[in-house]
Each structure stands twice: as C-alpha cells, then as structure tokens.
Amino acid sequence: MPSKNYHLATSGLLIAIGILLPVAFHSFKLGGQIFLPMHLPVFMAGFMLPWKFAGAVGLITPFLSFLFTSMPPVPAVFSMMAELFTYGFVTSVVYNKHRLGIYPSLIASMLAGRFVSIVSNWIITEFIIGKTFNFVKFTYGLFVVALPGIAIQLILIPLLVKLIVIGARNGKASKIKEGDKIGIDSERIF
C-alpha cells in the first residue's frame, strides 16, 4: 500500500497538471468549457488515490487555478470546486472501494459531478446573485457543448488508467517497450 507521502506527492502533481493543462488549452484557443482539461487530472486522482486525496485534488485544483490564472472566474470557481470534488470523490469510492470497472466508475462520477454542478450553479445564480437560473441552457452547456471533452474523457481516461494505475499494480508500468500492444481488454474495464 502506498504511503501518505506518495498520496501527497501524487496529489500535488495532479493539481499542478490541473492548473497547467487549461492554460495550455487556452493558449491554443481551445475552450475550457468544450474540452474540459481541468477534469482529466481530477478523474485520474479518483482512480489513483484514496477518496480523501482525490476529493482534495478536485476541491483545490480550481481554487488554485483561479488564484494563479483567474480561471475559472468568480462565481464559476465555486461551482467547479463542488463539481470537481464530486468527480474525484465518487470516482475513488466507486472504483477503489466498491471495485467497479473503469467505465462504470467514470460514468457514475461524470453524472454525479454534473448533478452537483447543476445544483451548485442554481444556488449561486438564484440565491447569491439573485438572477433566474436557466436550467435548459445550463444543462445544454454541460452535456452538449462539452461533448468533445466528454468524448476525450471516455477515451483517454480508461487508457491512462490501464497504463498507469493497473500497470503499476502489476509492476508493468516501467516495462512497456516499443511495439508492445497496449489495449483495454481485461481487468475491471466494464
């Protein structure tokens, strides 16, 4: 079992990636609301870390990103903190504790996080800002505008989990050589 220091170091690395990846996407004019780059390291935290650390990565990443880059802006940063906390927490609990496969864990987390995003944005819009919350427009943004990001998550996250998490458990992560067949064909995918 990895030590607390390992979990802290991995959390720090994933938080740093979560801050830098959106900056890279924005520098190429690739919209964050479309490609969801900050979500990727948070989902990976859910697969790699215990729930406390994974949830912390999700909570801290958007906050530090806001402090360093002013992205996401206020008040979106607060709803993103809740949404990304949910992604990290739910992924870790479903995958590591309940031992479900990669796709069920990822999809459950995506749905739970989007539900939390809807509720937190509704609370912020209606009760804090005092404006009317447009449920249809917001949900359209979460599920339709973000389709490229959702597709990236559904393709890239399982590959990364297979390479990093499952490979490390089997002691194969450092033994991948050129020409090795890398596929998702076994161990807790579905």
UniProtKB/TrEMBL annotation:
<keyword id="KW-0812">Transmembrane</keyword>
<dbReference type="GO" id="GO:0022857">
    <property type="term" value="F:transmembrane transporter activity"/>
</dbReference>
<dbReference type="InterPro" id="IPR024529">
    <property type="entry name" value="ECF_trnsprt_substrate-spec"/>
</dbReference>
<feature type="transmembrane region" description="Helical">
    <location>
        <begin position="107"/>
        <end position="129"/>
    </location>
</feature>
<protein>
    <recommendedName>
        <fullName>ECF transporter S component</fullName>
    </recommendedName>
</protein>
<feature type="transmembrane region" description="Helical">
    <location>
        <begin position="40"/>
        <end position="68"/>
    </location>
</feature>
<feature type="transmembrane region" description="Helical">
    <location>
        <begin position="6"/>
        <end position="28"/>
    </location>
</feature>
<dbReference type="Pfam" id="PF12822">
    <property type="entry name" value="ECF_trnsprt"/>
</dbReference>
<keyword id="KW-1133">Transmembrane helix</keyword>
<feature type="transmembrane region" description="Helical">
    <location>
        <begin position="74"/>
        <end position="95"/>
    </location>
</feature>
<keyword id="KW-0472">Membrane</keyword>
<feature type="transmembrane region" description="Helical">
    <location>
        <begin position="141"/>
        <end position="165"/>
    </location>
</feature>
